[in-house]
């Protein structure tokens, strides 16, 4: 389900999950990257920020899993347009 609005690049449902989830929980997310950015560098930055099992999906999206702690770090990575549930 696509979010109806975003806050700081995060879907509302992901924000709610992060506030109530246990620290050991993980969630599958889809990270959209701004056009024209260095995809490989952003991919590495996302992995360093805590995006686990990351894989490229198309030319401007990365799919992976995040913990509640890593969610905000992933959303704040340079070049990230939005993060939604997968």
Any overview of this molecule?
With 86 residues, this protein is of the alpha+beta class. Helix content is 33%, strand content 34%. The chain has 3 helices and 6 strands. The strands form 2 sheets. It has a 4-stranded antiparallel β-sheet with strand order 4-5-3-6. The protein has a two-stranded antiparallel sheet with strand order 1-2. Helix 2 packs antiparallel against helix 3.
Key traits:
86 residues, alpha+beta, four-stranded antiparallel beta sheet, two-stranded antiparallel ribbon, 3 helices, globular
Secondary-structure class: alpha+beta
**Widest sheet, order of strands:** 4-5-3-6
Give the helix level as a range of percent. 25-40%
Query: Helical segment tally?
Result: 3
Order of secondary-structure elements:
EEHEHEEHE
The dominant shape is: globular
| Beta-strand residue fraction | 25-35%
Strand tally, please? 6
């Amino acid at each position: 389900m696509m979010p109806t609005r975003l806050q700081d690049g995060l879907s509302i449902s992901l924000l709610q999950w992060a506030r109530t989830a246990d620290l050991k929980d993980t969630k599958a997310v889809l990270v959209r990257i701004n056009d024209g950015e260095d995809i490989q560098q952003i991919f590495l930055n996302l992995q360093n920020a805590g995006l686990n099992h990351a894989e490229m999906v198309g030319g401007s999206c990365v799919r992976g899993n995040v913990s509640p702690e890593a969610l905000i770090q992933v959303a704040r990575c340079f070049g990230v347009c939005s993060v939604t549930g997968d």
